[in-house]
Design the sequence.
């Protein structure tokens, strides 16, 4: 039985196709449309899913939608009733898309997919979040926490799941939202809402939490972790802006995008991160007290806060944590589909998601055809093993490599199939990658990938397997100087572990690098031009390499050197969008 | 064999699309004014006069509530419930 999960019309539209409870294909629309955080109907992602499964839309047995649109519309109306007469601008911006799209899901499915006379299941947003994590987790029972900006009305929910059943017991409702608190401070610090929250998280370790008292004026937190925002400081519930005048009176003027980041901004980021962590830990301690369960599944945009995630075990009694890699709204496409299969239709759980490689892949023949057609100069190796040996040597010589292998990742992280790899032992490699490729803020760290069998030698960590780069762990102190390019200012790293079963090529290149350097760690950062989504096709990978300072592109068993193809060089910075 | 549209045609097509969006935004702006100020406005004013709170804005300052958690009780329902958009 094929079930297609869809999330769209808010941010990060996505589609996921499951067959009898197993993930066949999944992808975010942005990777296909090339519009970052694309919120349109994910027709390209759906087309890919159907193609990968080898089926047509009339073979889909059910569609699962990631929210209840009318409940969300109800919340929107309440916002405008509350905000009248000052909310006309946001009313004008929102209503046309509700009338034309969001309230016409069956019509749109019929028109765009020719999907008719078959069921459409509407799953509540936070239930879709909960399902996206729990139903592919290794747990037979778990405590559940979902935290995001907002779904229909719910912004935070918790509960308990056993077998196929998920029960969300308690909730916090809009406008009180931990996610929107984080987003408001993100906007105040001059970053993009729903895009740059991770930058605030990266900025936090550079500051001191001296503004905690002021942040606590924004949010009242009870001992059981329940919280309420002081809405005098926020405008997001009625207007098109996030912080209110009172917020600005309290914290000073809003930092303009691109302006200097001062110590004050770092301190505010640190304070926010601290208060959010404290709140999360209170919620989780209360959740453990209620459920008496040591397994925890988290989902929602706030679950991408890898710094907080890395501290959960030290601050709560939970012993095992699972977070699905597409933890934000994209993941609800998968969650909705899984919920239909397991919870509504009552099918047993057998599948555990241990990798995220559900996107498009390309055969060696397709890649060779592309390279030949474009008259690209490249070297073809006998097999991938030879390419990996050669590429490891290039990395050891401090070249920056675009690494394009197998199927694209599902979720916001590049996890070794659409990655930029580099030498973590070089003291200036962070600056080199920033100068050559990423051009991003200097405070943002690069993430380490390590082979699973060596992780305990390098990190203070109580487990071997952390494959989705969703947890930050402290490096062992004696290792800081060995891999300076991936150690953040506070001595931590946003870790990805990899084993042979998850991704053999990726594991092999790190192993080969270790033979040369004695270090089983590489820098892994997403393979994209600044402001664009991660590359999806060979053409985008080549274009990205030639538009940046990436030295080589390793693509299947082919190696393309930037300097061998001068005719295609260009400057990606001229089109950078952020 | 694939057929490629000439660039001048694509430019015209794009400009028509942009023009269409521009016109739609103007008409939306005008037609939504009565919807907002009459439809939303009347309900909002009457509701507010009668003390209705459309959003729960929570506490102002210290309050004596023990918790802000609200009962959700969301669990498996009858199948028909999932076919509804609400």
Sequence:
């Amino acid at each position: 039985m094929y079930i297609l999960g869809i999330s769209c019309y808010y941010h990060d539209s996505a589609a996921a196709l499951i067959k009898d409870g197993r993930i066949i294909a999944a992808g975010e629309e942005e990777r296909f449309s090339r519009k970052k955080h694309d919120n349109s109907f994910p027709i390209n992602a759906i087309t890919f899913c159907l193609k990968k499964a080898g089926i047509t839309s009339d073979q889909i047995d059910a569609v699962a939608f990631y929210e209840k649109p009318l409940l969300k519309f109800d919340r929107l109306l309440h916002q405008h009733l509350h905000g009248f007469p000052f909310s006309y601008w946001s009313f004008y911006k929102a209503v046309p898309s509700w009338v034309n799209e969001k309230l016409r899901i069956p019509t749109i499915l019929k028109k765009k997919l020719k999907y008719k006379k078959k069921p459409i299941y509407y799953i509540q947003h936070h239930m879709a979040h909960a399902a996206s994590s729990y139903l592919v987790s290794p747990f037979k029972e778990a405590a559940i926490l979902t935290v995001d900006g907002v779904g229909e009305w719910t912004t935070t929910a918790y509960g308990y799941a056993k077998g196929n059943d998920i029960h969300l017991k308690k909730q916090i409702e809009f406008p009180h939202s931990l996610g929107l608190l984080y987003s408001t401070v993100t906007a105040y610090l001059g970053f993009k809402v729903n895009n740059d929250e991770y930058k605030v998280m990266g900025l936090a370790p550079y500051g001191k939490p001296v503004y905690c008292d002021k942040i606590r004026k924004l949010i009242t937190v009870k001992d059981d972790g329940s919280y309420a925002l002081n809405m005098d400081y926020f405008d997001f519930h009625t207007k098109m802006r996030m912080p209110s005048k009172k917020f600005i009176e309290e914290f000073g003027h809003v930092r303009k995008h691109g302006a200097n980041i001062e110590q004050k901004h770092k301190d505010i980021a640190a304070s926010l991160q601290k208060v959010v962590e404290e709140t999360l830990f209170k919620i989780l301690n209360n959740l453990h007290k209620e459920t008496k369960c040591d397994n925890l599944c988290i989902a929602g945009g706030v679950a991408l806060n890898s710094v907080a995630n890395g501290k959960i075990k030290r601050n709560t009694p939970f012993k095992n944590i699972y977070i699905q890699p597409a933890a934000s709204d994209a993941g609800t496409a998968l969650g909705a589909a899984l919920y239909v299969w397991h919870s509504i239709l009552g099918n047993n759980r057998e599948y555990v998601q241990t990798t995220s490689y559900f996107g498009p892949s390309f055969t060696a023949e397709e890649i060779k055809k592309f390279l030949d057609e474009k008259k690209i100069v490249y070297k073809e190796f006998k097999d991938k093993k030879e390419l990996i040996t050669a590429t490891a040597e290039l990395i050891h010589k401090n070249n920056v490599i675009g690494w394009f292998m197998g199927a694209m990742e599902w979720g916001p992280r590049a996890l070794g199939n659409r990655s930029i790899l580099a030498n973590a032992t070089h003291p200036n490699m962070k600056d080199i990658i920033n100068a050559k490729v990423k051009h991003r803020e200097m405070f943002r760290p690069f993430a380490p990938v390590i082979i699973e069998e060596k992780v305990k030698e390098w990190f203070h960590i109580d487990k071997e397997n952390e494959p989705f780069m969703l947890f930050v762990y402290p490096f062992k102190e004696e290792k800081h100087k060995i891999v300076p390019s991936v150690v953040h200012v506070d001595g931590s790293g946003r870790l990805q572990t990899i084993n042979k079963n998850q991704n053999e090529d990726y594991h092999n290149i790190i192993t080969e690098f270790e033979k040369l350097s004695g270090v089983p760690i590489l820098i892994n950062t997403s393979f994209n031009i600044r402001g664009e989504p991660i590359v999806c096709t060979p053409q985008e990978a080549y274009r990205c390499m030639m538009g940046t300072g990436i030295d080589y592109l390793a693509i299947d068993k082919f190696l393309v050197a930037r300097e061998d193809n001068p005719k295609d060089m260009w400057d990606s910075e001229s089109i950078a969008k952020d | 064999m694939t057929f490629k549209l000439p660039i001048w045609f694509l430019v015209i097509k794009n400009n028509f699309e942009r023009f269409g969006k521009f016109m739609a935004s103007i008409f939306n702006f005008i037609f939504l004014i009565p919807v907002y100020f009459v439809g939303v406005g009347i309900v909002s004013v009457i509701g507010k006069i009668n003390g209705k709170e459309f959003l729960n804005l929570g506490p102002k300052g210290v309050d004596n509530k023990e918790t802000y958690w609200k009962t959700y009780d969301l669990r498996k329902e009858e199948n028909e419930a999932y076919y509804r958009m609400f």
